[in-house]
Specification:
The chain is 46% helix and 20% strand. The chain has 309 residues and is an alpha/beta fold. It folds into 2 domains: 2-115, Orthogonal Bundle (Arc Repressor Mutant, subunit A); 138-308, Vaccinia Virus protein VP39 (Rossmann fold), CATH 3.40.50.150. Strands 5-4-3-6-7-9-8 form a 7-stranded mixed sheet, with helices on both faces. A two-stranded antiparallel sheet has the order 1-2. A hairpin with a 2-residue loop joins strand 1 (58-63) and strand 2. Helix 3 (31-38) packs across helix 4. The termini are far apart.
Length: 309
């Protein structure tokens, strides 16, 4: 009995095996689907599944050449008691919530792939179109729907990819970044676009006059900022009354390694936390949407939020 208990405890000591069990508790999935949902190589998934199979945590069902896995039903008695405690706690962790969202996307893709002939062609259309035309046409198409005459500031503009997409559809675009290397690439990218201005400066002290723009963008920038207050106050200063601050960033997550490896100051943001910071800077929260996860993406989930000056 004791040996069985410690063997089951050992199975839960590896975070990836716990993530696998969470995914397989709700759905029956193949190795490939688990690899996409958990963003882990198939060889690694297979190795851990083998250990879980040997210890009675999961069961396998074979259909033709495909093998489907799910949480064993019933679990061994010791495993069932452990999972009743551990599984309930894991469900509240940010990384496990992200796994569940990606599993839903993988299952949706499975439904597409299983359709009849026309459905199969429809499912592959995105990839075919990407091979022919790339993905660069999406942002300019959306930008073309903006009202004419807008003045836009891209705060933390990086290499200017968004500026290039917006410029044909707005009156003026100003890109601000404190890294000269980024701005050098951006200058090459926007060469010949007369309504674009690139400025070097810090987000806490924007090189722009008050009420200079109608829209301010912060795209995957705020998680690099030590103190949100001054940055949001500066964004409010350069916006006209009724202007909009648009924020694209990561939802709250628990990937602590990002602090050391990528210089992140915040592990994403909650809707409530960012809304409170925005209100303190003079904004009114307008909308918050969590974006659909991309099964091929390696990072945490994203949100898109709008705040009104």
């Amino acid at each position: 009995m004791d040996n069985d208990l410690f063997a089951h405890l050992s199975a839960l000591s590896e975070p990836l095996r716990a993530r696998l069990l969470c995914a397989l508790e709700a759905h029956e999935l193949t190795v490939g689907e688990l690899a996409r949902a958990l963003q882990t190589p198939q060889s690694t998934i297979s190795r851990h599944l083998k250990q879980l199979l040997e210890r009675g945590w999961v069961e396998r069902r074979t259909v033709g050449p495909a093998s489907f896995f799910r949480l064993a039903n019933p679990l061994p008695p010791e495993a069932e008691r452990l999972w009743a405690v551990v599984g309930a706690d894991l469900g509240g962790c940010a990384s496990f919530r992200e796994d569940r969202l990606r599993v839903e996307r993988v299952l949706a893709q499975r439904q597409i792939d299983s359709r009849a002939f026309f459905g199969q062609h429809a499912a592959s259309w995105d990839a075919l179109r990407g091979e022919m035309f790339g993905a660069g046409f999406f942002a300019p198409t959306v930008a073309a729907m903006l009202p004419p005459g807008l003045r836009v500031a891209d705060l933390g503009c990086g290499t200017g990819e968004l500026i290039q997409a917006l410029a044909p559809s707005v009156a003026r675009v100003v890109g601000v970044d404190q890294e000269e290397a980024m701005l050098a690439v951006a200058r090459q990218r926007v060469q010949g676009l007369e309504n674009v201005q690139l400025l070097r400066g810090a987000l806490e002290a924007l090189p722009l006059p008050a009420a200079a723009v109608d829209i301010a963008l912060c795209m995957l920038v705020l998680h690099h900022v030590d103190d949100l207050g001054p940055v949001l106050c500066e964004a409010a200063r350069v916006l006209v009354s009724g202007g909009r601050l648009v924020v694209l960033d990561m939802v709250e997550h628990d990937r602590q390694e990002y602090r050391a490896t990528m210089g992140h100051r915040h592990l994403g943001f909650s809707e409530e936390g960012l809304a409170a910071a925005a209100r303190a800077a003079g904004f009114t929260p307008c909308s918050w949407h969590r974006l659909a996860p991309d099964p091929t993406a390696l990072g945490p989930g994203l949100f898109l939020a709008v705040y009104v000056r």
